[in-house]
Write a structure and sequence with these properties.
The protein is α/β, with parallel strands linked by helices. It is built from 12 helices and 11 strands. The chain has one domain: Alpha-Beta Barrel (TIM Barrel), CATH 3.20.20.70. Helices cover 46% and strands 16% of the residues. The termini are close together. Bound molecules: zinc ion (ZN).
């Protein structure tokens, strides 16, 4: 069942966090729907511009329709992740997205507000909800590149002013995570005191955590053992998700973990089978492993079992 982002987030807010899974290919589609159906978790299917044009928006749209038929119990909404003003407006017009994220976080405060206001106006006319970002999550992913020195934590007073002036539906805040595989040089450090202050200022606005992949040490070690170079990659401890959800984080974005599983499965398979040219074998392995990962992640997020509320 395709539903809307706003409904899913309202249901989750302060109880659990929805997994927002970035995907781009067939095997991820299959694994995501399988994992979320098996764990009975509502979820967001997130598409960046790079993901949309890795193949074609029309192809992805028909794949999503197909998944809905194959997995009738799946409860999900389609979200455009990290858009600019132009791509958000394109997704709003397409009639296929339930929500868009306008990421003008690298702009100054007033420019971020002006751009976000324009996207909110266009989206709300079509009944589509909007996420924006205030503060700046560091790291690299798709078209985003923010140096550690440029990353900025979210100011709670500015967050309240931002939400008030833009009418944005949910807000991505920077509380210590970063995009990509190389997140932390020391122990994981989410600023829960800051998150609580933001939530106190905007108690009715669901908050969003970006850059929250866990980068399991075991995956990094196996990728390294087969020739990868990811030494030093670190992520967010999944035991922090529920405490974050109780402080207003209702959507947690997961992208890098999926890429790690893909990389490890393919590296190991072709190393063990140097004579093979059959991509379908590691592809099917990846689908299974990604499904298992997604189901486990949904348990960490507290969203497992919550799809029942929508049936
Ligand atoms: Zn992000």
């Amino acid at each position: 069942m395709i539903t809307d982002t706003q409904t899913l987030l309202k249901n989750a807010h302060r109880k659990y966090a929805l997994g927002s899974y970035n995907i781009a290919n067939l095997e991820q589609f299959m694994g995501l729907f399988k994992g979320c159906t098996e764990s009975q978790a509502p979820f967001l299917l997130a598409l960046t511009d790079l993901a949309l044009y890795y193949s074609h928006p029309k192809l992805l749209e028909s794949m999503i329709r197909g998944m809905e038929e194959i997995f009738p119990d799946a409860v999900f909404a389609v979200h455009h992740d990290h858009g600019n003003e132009e791509s958000c407006k394109r997704c709003i017009q397409s009639g296929f997205f339930s929500s868009v994220m306008i990421d003008a976080s690298k702009e100054d405060f007033e420019t971020n507000i002006a751009i976000t206001q324009r996207v909110v106006r266009a989206a709300h006319e079509k009944g589509i909800s909007v996420e924006a970002e205030l503060g700046q999550v560091g790291g690299n992913e798709d078209t985003i590149e923010v140096k550690e020195s440029e990353a900025k934590l979210t100011d709670p007073d500015k967050a309240a002013e931002f939400v008030e002036r833009t009418g944005v539906d949910f807000l991505a805040c920077a509380i210590g995570t970063s995009h990509g595989a190389f997140k932390f040089s020391g122990p994981t450090n989410l600023h829960f005191d800051l998150l609580s202050s933001i939530q106190e200022k905007i108690p009715n606005t669901p908050l969003v955590l970006h850059g929250a992949s866990s980068i399991p040490a075991d995956e990094v070690q196996r990728i390294t053992a087969t020739g990868g170079k990811l030494q030093g990659a670190r992520g967010v401890d999944p035991s922090l998700f529920i405490p974050a959800a109780s402080r207003g984080i209702a959507k947690i974005n997961i992208a890098t973990d999926s890429r790690l599983i893909w990389t490890r499965v393919h590296r190991e398979y072709f190393q063990e089978h140097p004579e093979s040219v059959d991509f379908r074998v590691p592809g099917a392995n990846f689908t299974q492993e990604y499904a298992r990962f997604v189901a486990e992640k949904n348990h960490h997020l507290g969203s497992a079992g919550m799809a029942k509320a929508f049936s």
